[in-house]
Amino acid sequence: MEGLGERLEKTFQFSYGAKEKKQTISGKINLPLQETITECCHRLMSQQNFPCFLEDELKKDLIIFVEKSKEKISDEYSESVTNTLDDSTEQRLISEWCQSFSEETKEHSKPEEISNELVFSEIYNQLIHSQLQTTILKLENSYARAVDDLISRRNVELNDMRNRQSAAMDKLATMGSRYTDEEINRITHQQFEKIQMLESKWESELTALYDKQRREYREWLLEVHQDLKTGNDLSHLLDENMLSSQSIYGQDNSIANENRLEESFTIHLGAQLKTTHNLRLVRSNILDLCKYSNHGHFAASPIRLQNSMSLYSNAISAMVLIVDDRLNSYFGIKQDFKMICQDSTEFHWNDFDKQLEDIKTILNGKKLQPGDCYVTRHSNLSNVQVVFHLVTDMDTLKTGDVSSRHPVLLGYRNIIRTCFQHDITSLTLPLLLVQDVTEQMTISWCMKRSELVFKCIKGFLMELSTWSAKQSRTVTFLVPNGISQNMFSDISNLLESIFRMSNPVVVSKA
Amino acid sequence: MKCPKLGKALLGAQTFCGINYSNDECGANGLPLTPTSIKILGRFKHQLLKLRHPNLCKYISLHRSKHERVVVVAEYYEKNLLEIINNQSEYFRDFELLSCLANEIVGSLVYLDKHDIVNRNLSPSVILFDENNRVKLFEYGLFYVTGWGQDVKFPIGQLKYMSPEVIAAGPKAKFGICNFSSKVDVWSVGLILLEAYIGTILWKELTTAKTIKKILSYLKFDGSAFDIIIKEDLNENQQKQIKLLPSEIYTLIRQCLLISAADRPKIQALYNFRLFKNFSKDVEKFDVRDDMFASTSRMKNFDFKCNAGNECMSDFLLEERTLDEIYYLWCIAGGDAINSFKKAFLVRPEPPVTTLPKFISLEGESAGQMRDKSNLYDGSVLILSQDQLRKRLSNLTEEDFFPLLNSELEKTGVSTNRSRNSNEFNQSESLPRIIREADVEYQFRRIILFDRLLLAYPSKQRDLQKEARIDIPPFLRAKIWSALLNVKGDIQGHFDSIDKETTIAIDRQIEVDIPRCHQYHELLSSPSGHQKLRRVLKAWVVNHPEYVYWQGLDSLAAPFVALNFDDEALAFCCLENFIPKYLHNFFLKDNSEVIQEYLAVFSHLISFHFPELSNHLNEIGFVPDLYAIPWFLTMFAHVLPLTSLWHIWDTLLLGNSSFPLCLGVAILEQLSPRLLQCEFNECILLFSDLPELDIERVVNNAIKIFRSTPKTATYRRHAHVKTDEKMKDTYYSEEYSLKKECLIANDPISLSELKREKLPRICSQDLLELLEFRKSSPSSSPTKVNGSDTSKPKMLIMDIRNPEE
Amino acid sequence: MANRTASRPANGQNKICQFKLVLLGESAVGKSSLVLRFVKGQFHEFQESTIGAAFLTQTVCLDDTTVKFEIWDTAGQERYHSLAPMYYRGAQAAIVVYDITNQDTFSRAKTWVKELQRQASPNIVIALAGNKCDLSNKRMVECEEAQAYAEENSLLFMETSAKTAMNVNDIFLAIAKKLPKNDGGSGGNGSSGVSLERTDPSSGGGCCK
Prior knowledge:
The complex is a heterotrimer. By secondary structure, chain A is of the alpha/beta class.
């Protein structure tokens, strides 16, 4: 009994009375039956004005009729599939069944299916939730310091060379026309090559360090886990400074930002059943959100601990980075972001460049278009584990005319839907769809843009929580640093009016 | 209809995943596709939950989890046929045992066939045995519940026991309707009986491909595969055994294994075989109602067991409780079936961060996603440990299980004689509802108590009402509501006799309203839910020619359908009794008089209780006509989610037809701080999306308002006048309109006058009562109030008559 | 039914006009969805049916004029028809909605137009909206047919989709443009340049003069 699927109309005939006065009555019956036999019987009786003494007889006949009709349908079907059987069909059937069993049932699937990644994630998740968490963080910290060290040395050396080169160029310039343009070009070229060589030397050194650290780290975790399982004494691994954890965890050292403004809201969405969500309005540079201020010491950060603990959990955090349609990280915000990723070793996922390569493979030559979005995963950023890189045409976004059907908003919808499907419970996104303040952004421009995005996000949240109503989510709307305090509070008021803040708790008058 | 008792059964859970429609696919009606887990849940509650047969493991519950995963909980036993064949290969050489086995399997399949369920999942491992060695078929609803396989990716059934036509149809042969009949199960029965008899599992060494080849090869022959199997697969000794088979059994197996589906008997035909002539074949009897609406004697199935052995008392008594009740308690005792699977490593979901796609296109297609292997089908059964629950209930005594009901002797006060824990129990009553509903022991006592009151229904109706004033245990809400609504008699016969099939004029309206009615609710948004709501609505319209379908009737019916998802007749009868009680004549073709009067009285009540608010609302022109029609026409069912509505109606059902007005006033009161600050536009916007309300406070305030409202203030000419009520009302549920002494009733004023007036008229007796010259009658509120109400109304009486009068 | 006073801060440059707009049409054609898309920018597939009527407001800025719509969204069921005059009485604009995938809803829309022409304010601006044009593969009402009908009856016409937001803002804007905004003889408090019109439904025929 399901409204779907086609129904077959059959004519049912029922005869009664003695031979000479035999009466036949017919009625329409739809198969599969959407009513019970009893109901059907009552219906026919009242429609045809049957005398009630015929009820039992009618019902009996009806049952037989329905049974026969159903049997006929299924017999015909069975015959149709068995009659057409030839060798090729048989081969097809065999492969279809085999595939179906081996790909969809555990019993017939290959046994070694538990992936290394799953094993590693389970081990990590177990250890980070154990007493060893401080030890792990300390280890990660010491690795990060090593990377930091190397990067500092690289920067010093590169700066040195750049300084020397520019000094040399200056010198050349002061010497006036003793060098031809051609010669100057040659020297410039040489300088550039030198820099490149130096850069790639450091690059490979860094890569080697990342690889080494990653290998060591993972081996160490597996070992410790083994020890833990076999009950070996791990007290030597426990941090003797545990007691002084106060001082370790004391300061929150994510980017201290005097520019940062923040407001939080709780909202209820939905006409009948309401879902509760949290909204935040934050003024900050988007990259500051995922950067540890002094990465050399992040072991001490409670944010780092929280990040590590939620990495494999069912409550992960993501942010949206608005990017252009080239899949690389050479310029602007994409380069800045990559630098942050490289501040320390990525122990869990492929490094950022490799992830981009994977995405390139998936794209298979297809060009990125506005509204597309590629996804990268990170274990060494602050506050987020997942980054959605939303492709857009930067120029049109800076002008005013963006409608609710603009690709970037459809992209937001796809992203929010992905969040709902994959337990991403916290999402940060640029409210104004741009990451820097420009002159075009007048007050009315900002308000109009905010209104559009607020309304769209509200709509998406309502629409997508239709059947997954229980979980509440946090959406952080980010506005760039250049937004004034006044504007910030205007936007905050707008948010309140669009999302119709839930009732403040009313103190009952007793 | 009553669920079987727990007995020695275990609670077994299984889990599988439905197909995930990841993209924005839409169905034929332009609406997004219903998630498969919702469709599955709908079918489960519609059909599987209703099935009960002594040889079927009772289905108990189905939960949805993330990513279209569902968990099915059912009665379970550890002993199964596969084990017997493997370990006691000669067990079924005994022809009597073999016939009995055949009879029990076939009998249960006949019952399933009667409910249009094709099993297609038969194998020795799902044929279980209880402690009395009675067959208990398990996992028999998988094919049905998955929409004949269309909602899942995995193939249903054990390959080896599939009939040739099932194999030939291929794994992807999935349709909205079932193309197979019970004949596919008949084939499996034949093979299973053969294996049971010879005590060997056939074709153990064959690969999947070879098994398919073998079964398909039969299609080249006519006649029975039995003959081929004897020749090809049995050894000499086994062939000898076959020769010893009595002809009835031999024929049975041979007929079951007829290769052509057209020749093979249907299950019902099989049941008529000579082998079964000495067994009872009445499968109808299992569906006869034996609950409070039984059309036959309810005493028939009544048995009180006493503890004969020295077993642990509470364990023994628990076994006397029903399976669904035990499972309900298991859940509130902290049980979580899906979590149990994770703990047992039977489900190892990949962390979400690893299953994310790497790329999402503008069109919403995602790519680079890792397949989560934990979604593969794994038929393992997890036994849910009852230890925790038993521990939580270990303090219960025999008296707790059998409380005495002797309220008829006591006219007032506590109605039931409670055991020594009653002090503690009374304390629980004053805790917030949400805490009470999560308290296992409290719920257990409430269930026991109401269960007994319901057993006596309708004779203990008054006690039931009194107890319901304390609270209603959610587990029994459906039955308690129907008792409060005074549903009686042969409800099934009544419902069955109404034509819900023939097209009527209002069909289109119902059709467009249903997919918009409480669609956040998992049952009401399922195809089965739509179908049920349609049938209940049509039945009501057809059965009440004096009334018509007004939009809103759908919302009104929805709570009853959701609550009685496995019992349409009861849902219908509750609706049918609810409407005259609270919405008398609201569904007249011309209902404006009725509604206008109702709203006018509502206005008066606002003025009476909250003059400041009333003045403000009148000033800005925010009259009830603008917002309160959907409130009252649907008794709040259109504006509140069902989760809130349960609690509102728990109390509403105890009051008379003016109580809903008090609920409305209480809602306004809760919103009044905001309303008082708002102008017209803001007010109406506020009500276009009713803000989240504190329901417990609304209910409690409504009761206070009700108690302090003079009865005559709520007088309505259009209120229902009861005629044939035999049951004596308690004071609070009585319709005041009937009272003879009521002067207002004898001298009604016109609607226009009523609308013009700002305040209610009350009669002199009510005035005296307000002044507390008259002692207020006891039990005058829908729920029990401890202690006396100290807030006396302050009153100023003004004479506004002209001096001449 | 509603007799209330409105006070609006007089704004030097901007003229503020307030108009009453009513949505009419068969059940489930998407009246509420259109309004919600316009006012709240949201869309809900399973939008609950409207019982009686619902009310929302939205302001539209047109050059130097601010147009404030008071929108009455009515119940679609034929039976609620008796309530409809209460809502369209005094309305300066109406959107009659039909569903392009259902011919019957178009016929019903025509009936509504007739009734409005007969019963509503004489200067009422009527727009016809063919909604659900995202489902054009299931189209039953041809765009040309509706267009021709609209022209015959001098209605504004657009095919809309509350789901994709197509033409939703546009149709409200078109109405706003077409509504008369000159301020002669305002029935309000008459402050300069501000059209304040409290429409009292019982008086009928009020229009923003």
